[in-house]
Amino acid sequence: MSSVTVAPPAVVRDTASQILDVAERLVQSRGFNDVSYADIAVELGVTKPSLHYHFRSKAALGDALIARYSARFFEQLDRIEADVVGVRARLDAYVGIYAAVLAAGRMCLCGILAAEYQTLPEKMRSAVLDFFDRNEAWLERILDESSRDTAKLIIDTLEGAVMIARAQNDSDRFDRVAERLVSSVVPGVADPR
Amino acid sequence: MSSVTVAPPAVVRDTASQILDVAERLVQSRGFNDVSYADIAVELGVTKPSLHYHFRSKAALGDALIARYSARFFEQLDRIEADVVGVRARLDAYVGIYAAVLAAGRMCLCGILAAEYQTLPEKMRSAVLDFFDRNEAWLERILDESSRDTAKLIIDTLEGAVMIARAQNDSDRFDRVAERLVSSVVPGVADPR
DNA sequence: GTCTATAACGAGATAGAC
DNA sequence: GTCTATCTCGTTATAGAC
Question: Is B8 a residue whose pLDDT tops 70?
């Protein structure tokens, strides 16, 4: 009789995913151009050619990084829209995504890639722009008012706040700025904390 | 009789300044780690060792870049404080500095260095943090209200807005966000444009 | 001050064995 | 799918002539 196909151990991901995990963390910390195949290989205990087997070029690795990051990011936005009620609460949840990134000592992947924009391959550039467009579209949708500039203001402030608070190693700064931002956008009650 | 010492031609700067000029533009476009001595040497029509004569190491070049950029930046802030009257007008002038950077297709030097923060030598890190601290202090001083978080909100938003508008090649986006930002901080009249 | 020449290293990438 | 070995190129930096 044939053996039954069982699910693999939940904690051990396939190699490609493990590569993406390490690469994502390193890129969000140092930037795409300051992460090498050698850095990733050492952490995983494999050699550089092994990485090239899974991602032919560094550009291909970059493409895969943004694709996975974006997919997960917008899944979170879908969940917020489905589970959270009210503009203020939804914005707080949105801010929470950025706060979690900062708490991990990282920048938003597409934020740090935006800073490196001029040095990126064309496909990565488009994917970065797409990330911001979709963020903006989501914010416009959940905001009650019609001003599209509010969505841009929110994105720009949060991306800048993460970048600077990370350099200052001061997550409290991020929290205070985000509170002031959200309060100015949704003039209702103050932060319930 | 001895010859009179005349002022050098105004347009031709000394070599060290010329190196800083080219390096500054390249770093504000691509980031510190993506600018090489070779890039700078080619533009100036000199060789790499010539650059090393003026700036022993790349870290020393980076230190000099931030020092000059900061000095000029805070000179501008001094001038605004001396020549411009009123919170709104001063903030508009402050925003104008960032708008000019964006118009040149650049990021704020310390903004792009903040994104690269984890890879910078220690002295450059301190200088970057100092830049933001002094910006914050200046904003707190010219603002009428006591909220220090407002100063942080302004810096973070402008830095993020420059970063993203540059990637999107959309300076109009920057202008609209900045207008919304300043209006929310100084609830007086709308943009006089 | 600027040059030629070169050292010493790390990058991304490929060939081919296992 | 992962390895060893290697290639080619770019990087910062230095020695020493002019």
Answer: no
At A104-113, the pLDDT tens digits run 999 999 999 9
Q: How buried is A87 (Cβ within 10 angstroms: 0-12 exposed, 13-18 middle, 19+ buried)?
A: middle
Pair of tokens at residue B34: 């993506």
Taking the CB of residue B5, how many other CB atoms lie within 10 A of it?
Answer: 6
DSSP string, A141-191: HH-SS--HHHHHHHHHHHHHHHHHHHHHT-HHHHHHHHHHHHHHHS-SS--
pLDDT at residue A8 greater than cutoff 90: no
In the chain, the amino acid numbered A119 is T
Instruction: Quickly give B17 CA vs D12 C1' distance in Å.
Output: 21
Domains identified in chain A and CATH numbers? 9-185 (1.10.357.10)
Q: Which of helix, strand or coil describes residue B57?
A: coil
**Residue A8 beta carbon within 7 A of nucleic strand D:** no
Q: Quick one: how many helices (H) and strands (E) in chain A?
A: 9, 0
CB pairs under 8 A between A and B: 134
